[in-house]
Amino acid sequence: MISLSPTPALTGCLRSVHHIALNVRDMQASRHFYGTVLGLHQLQGADVPETLQAEVASGKVTNFRTPDGVIVDLFWEPELLPPDPDPKAAFTRANHLAFDIAPELFEQAIAVLHAHQVLIDHGPVSRPTGRGVYFYDPDGFMLEIRCNQA
Predict the structure, then answer these.
(1) Which residues of 71-109 are buried (b: 16+ CB within 10 A; e: fewer)?
(2) Which of 67-76, 77-86, 95-104, 112-121 has the lowest mean pLDDT?
(3) What's the pLDDT band for 99 if we cut at 50, 70, 90?
(4) CA angle 117, 94, 104 (to 5 degrees)
(5) Residue 124: what pLDDT?
(6) 17 three-class SS
């Protein structure tokens, strides 16, 4: 439901897309597509985010960097089935979309989400690489607002 009351917005707070996380059924085919077909740089070694190193080592996650620096995370979900054999019929492969925010605005952003009665999935969470909060858009797509450590 659209709120007609004047509530604060995140206008001016969001800086960029931090990363995009996609669920993939066939990791080898997806790694080939993003790395070879699209030519994205695959992160390896120290370039892999600290919070994903164990998953990357086990083959459950692969990370790529776009030319403008956005990270694309591929999460292996081998049981994932399409809702329709025609890939143009539905969009189902995204895990979540993360927006970067300045650390000093993180608490304000959470207050804005609460003010708009946005459903929070989990968080805020703190990690060695920063803080994040996960929530849903009106269609149930998961989003994240995250910041680096101050």
Answers:
(1) bbbbbbeeeeeeeeeeeeeeeebebbebbbbeeebbeeb
(2) 77-86
(3) confident
(4) 50
(5) 94
(6) strand
- When pLDDT is cut at 50, 70 and 90, the band that residue 119 belongs to is confident
Paired tokens of 131: 């803080």
Give the model's confidence band at 83: pLDDT under 50 very low, under 70 low, under 90 confident, else very high.
low
**Rounded to whole angstroms, how far apart are CA atoms 24 and 4?**
39
CB atoms within 10 A of CB 8: 12
Burial class (CB in 10 A: 0-12, 13-18, 19+), 30: buried
Region of 11 (left: φ > 0; alpha: ψ -120 to 50; beta: rest) is beta
